[in-house]
Structures are given as structure tokens and as C-alpha cells.
Amino acid sequence: MNDDLYKGKYRTQTIRFQNWDYSSSGWYFVTICIENKENLFGYVMNKQVVLTELGHYAAASWLAMERVFKVLKNDVWVIMPNHTHFLFKIDNPKEKYEFNEFGKTIKNSVSSIINHFKGRVTKYKNKENIEFEWQKGFYEHIVRDEYDFKRIQNYIVDNPTNWGKDKFYKK
Q1: d(C-alpha 92, C-alpha 25), whole Å
Q2: Quick one: how far is CA 64 from the chain centroid?
Q3: Model pLDDT for residues 91-144, shown as the tens digit of each residue
Q4: Is residue 160 packed enough to be buried (19+ CB in 10 Å), middle (13-18) or exposed (0-12)?
Q5: DSSP conformation class of 163
Q6: What is the pTM of this model?
Q7: Would you list the domain boundaries of the chain?
Q8: Residues 108/92, Cβ–Cβ less than 8 Å
Q9: By CB neighbour count within 10 A (0-12 exposed, 13-18 middle, 19+ buried), where does 31 fall?
């Protein structure tokens, strides 16, 4: 992108590591939200998530990602009323690495996996005339060590139990 053209005015700061290949082998934690925190995927009752039809479709779509992306290995994940959490591994042994570039999606990367998931759910919601938009982008975290991995696993598993205290909670 030409910074002189826009004088840096329209650039947003990214939290992504600029020198990291997001298709490289490793564990990743991703959170995706529905715009305005609308509870369209379901609700929590007795510390359990009860999914709507859209929530069930989102869950089935996530499970299908392992068939679409052979490099993807799921660990724990949850569809919450207005967001999702996924902890997964990319097992992609390769010799040539590609680094994050604006506007370029790398094959078998975190972005390509999440974009495909969001696209599947979007196609379904359009077909079923369900009104919602995804929040722009998504949060991702590269899991750094065993402690980080266990902390994230526990957070995801406990998310329905802690729903009332969750930062995404909306009645």
C-alpha cells in the first residue's frame, strides 16, 4: 500500500505478527464475533449452550473444516450465543514460508480457514434470510507454550459456565 497516497490516514494497526507465516505448523486460538453481539447462535441455560438452527449450522460448518483443510486438527471449540472460540492446530510441514501481506490470503492459513468458515455460515444465513453480520475480522492468538495451551483450553471449556461474566455477554 502506498502510504504517500493516503498519508497513512486509512491504515489500521494490526495485532498480527508481521514476520509470521500463519499457515505454518502450530496451535492457534481464534475468536469470531457476530456484529453488535447479537445472540443468534443460541443461549445459555444451566451453564450449557442451547444452539439455534443457525448455531447448529455454525457448529457443523466448523466440524467440516477438517475435511476441507487437511492441515487442520481441532482441539476444543465452542459456539456461544454471539461468538465462537476455536483452538486448533495447523500441521503444515513445508519448506517455503510466506509472510503476512495486506490483502493476500495464504493457502491453508488461519485466515483462509476462518474466511471459509465465515463464508459457509454467511451463505446459509443468506439462504435462510437470517439477518446478521460478522464483526469485521477476528481475534487470533498463536499459542506459545503448554501453559498457554492449557489456559486457553480451560477458558473455552468453561466459557458457557462463565457466560454471565463473559466480555461478550449480552442479554
Answers
A1: 5
A2: 14
A3: 987 655 565 555 567 889 999 999 999 999 999 999 999 999 999 989 999 999
A4: buried
A5: G
A6: 0.84
A7: 21-95+105-161
A8: yes
A9: middle
> Three cell numbers at 136?
469485521
C-alpha cell of 164? Answer: 454471565
C-alpha cell at 161: 459456565
Dihedral sign for Cα atoms in the order 161, 162, 164, 166: negative
Strand partners, 50: 43
Q: Which three cell numbers stand for residue 9?
A: 490516514
Triad 32, 33, 34: Cα angle to 5°: 135
What is the CATH T-level fold of the domain 21-95+105-161, as seen in this structure?
Alpha-Beta Plaits (3.30.70)
**DSSP H or E segment with residue 30:** strand 26-33
Cell, residue 14: 494490526
In this predicted model, what pLDDT tens digit does every residue of 32-71 receive, in sequence order? 999 999 999 999 999 999 999 999 999 999 999 999 999 9
Amino acid type, 95: E
Residue type, 38: E
Question: Alpha helices, DSSP H only, in the chain?
Answer: 3-6, 53-68, 110-127, 146-158
Chain position carrying cell 457448529:
59
In degrees and rounded to multiples of 5, residue 30 shows phi and psi of -130, 140
